[in-house]
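W.,

You were right to be curious about this one. When I first looked at the sequence I had no strong expectations either way, so I just let the prediction run and decided to look at it fresh. Below is the sequence, 265 residues in total, followed by the output.
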Amino acid sequence: MARQAITSVLALDGDMRFTRHERDARLTGAVEGYWTLTVATPDAILRVIPDGRIDAIFDLDTRESFVGGPVPLPFEVRHERPTRLLGATLSPAAAAAFFGVEIGAIGPGWRSLDALLGPLAARLTALVLAGETIEAKVAALESLLIARIGAPDRRVARAVDAVARSGGRVGVAALGRAAGASPRNLARLFDRWVGLPPKTFARIARVQEVLRRMQDNPAPSLKALSAELGFADQAHMSREVKAIAGDGPGRMAESFKRMSESFKP
């Protein structure tokens, strides 16, 4: 089965539509994909689940733009007006190149792109929003990403790849060896270019792997899954999932089951 996309949002209440859009193969490893969120009837509440990525976000109605920095814990967002958003989910290295700043300077949560980039933000936003259709807007955003994303710091890229390949089951010492950096230097690199400590980044990736498996199989044996993914026991896995995703595996599995067909993964 094809690898599921990361689980970064969960609908809790209200009428909303979340749709993912595929990215160009040239951006594999740099861009997870594009997404649109439409809230037709407020209020609508969704939970943002940590995924270790950074989002470029464009409000199609207000024509404002934002960057969503990496967060270590889940949080909820209430949309109190009709909303149409377009976003791109970027790897840390790709985001640093696209925004032209260290990820550590962005900080957690949403921040105005204008406050981060000044006049450049308005030019980027105008280019993305000029298209008449969502497809045209996504194409414009993708063209900007291809043009602006360069080669990441090799040490960070190796460490992030090691986390991805292991499903988060890698210690800081092993990450340092994979990256060719001492644990202290690795922590500094992650602070600058990922915005999260190495241990936290790996922890998030491990929980994301649990969520992927539950999306593949909405009624898994949690005991077997915890053993397969290297947790000490089922209770350990449950605590980690609840800490990162906001609910334990059982509740998350129920949420996946009742997810509306209009809320597309």
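Here's what jumped out at me. The chain has a mean pLDDT of 88. And, maybe more interesting for your project: The longest helix spans residues 198-216.

Coffee later to discuss?

I.
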